[in-house]
User: What shape does this take?
Amino acid sequence: MNRPQLILAPGKEKALQRRHPWIFSGAVRQRVGDMQPGDLVDVLSTDGQWLATGHYQDDSIICKVLSFETRQIDADFFSQRLLSAIRYRQQLGFFNNPATNVFRLVYGEGDFLPGLVCDWYNGVLVMQAHSAGIHRQLPLLKDLMVQHLSQFDLKSVFDKSSTTCPNYGTPLQDGYIWGIQPDEWEVCESGNKLLINFFEGQKTGFFIDQRENRLLVSQLAQGHRVLNCFGYTGGFSLAALRGGAQFVETVDISKKAIELCNRNVELNFGPDAPHKGTIADVLKFFAESEFQNSKFDLIILDPPAFAKNHRSLQQGLKGYRTINQRAMETIADGGLLMTFSCSQAVSKDDFQTMLFTAAANARRKVRIVRQLPHAADHPVSIYHPEGEYLKGLLLEVEK
Assistant: This one.
């Protein structure tokens, strides 16, 4: 196979020998042959030893490795990887759980398919490419998924790559690429119905990774006043109401998100549910006198990624610290704070140190009750710890 080659600088082969699937541009000494974004390339050590095959990208991560074995990267290769991912979810019981029909089906490096995310929404498969190489393979991957998922009553395939795939000269547009084309779709998570808009929704339509943490909220919420910050379309709010919360307030800066949240609440609990949707910036909401005088027993902070990369880490940590301090200062005595960071650049140590500072500034007694990772359908390759991006803690806060 006469593929283009990336020749690594001396000593840079060690990460690949540990089977890490990313090659950074600074590790490459020489490029041999004509290579375009998304092309398959072979990776060689300085002395010419073959190390891996992956997709080339003209970016800081110059190659995402598909295989550490010498083999064809063809339809059979992708078919085997997809079948492995499907079998894993079958083993976890996701395909036969009527209470939950939305889950992650392929999780990039965690399923040994770097650059590919696939989510199952009650028969609609949403595919998302995070690399040019995967985007160029989407027609093949779609055909394979249609074949492999026919037994599970697949109805549609939706491509949602426009904001995640690097621009490589091909127009990127979200839309259905197979099957029926609903404007809106209903799914069920832990007994709660949710309306999904694949065109307008964040991520692939919903934040699937928080499923098990939302289930925990439903176990903790009974009789409590619950505040769901950065609440999006109300996943945590529905869980709290399902668990018997006395009152739930959902805060998000997006009018569309709050409108859909209110619809989701009414769909599940009727028009008289003890819920309020508030369109507001969370920090400004914390400063309002109405909030200052309203004590919540359980506060959920699930913000967007404040630190998109390591260059913005310190600024991002400052943002996390500010919102957590405000929550700690105002939460009811003995209240529970469920707080998260989805920033890959923020380590567990960074996150916990930030919370220590927020607690000290708030002058409250704070103790860790529980670690809160992402759900089991987001497996993490032992060779790629970066896949464990979601950091979360359940904290108890006293005077």
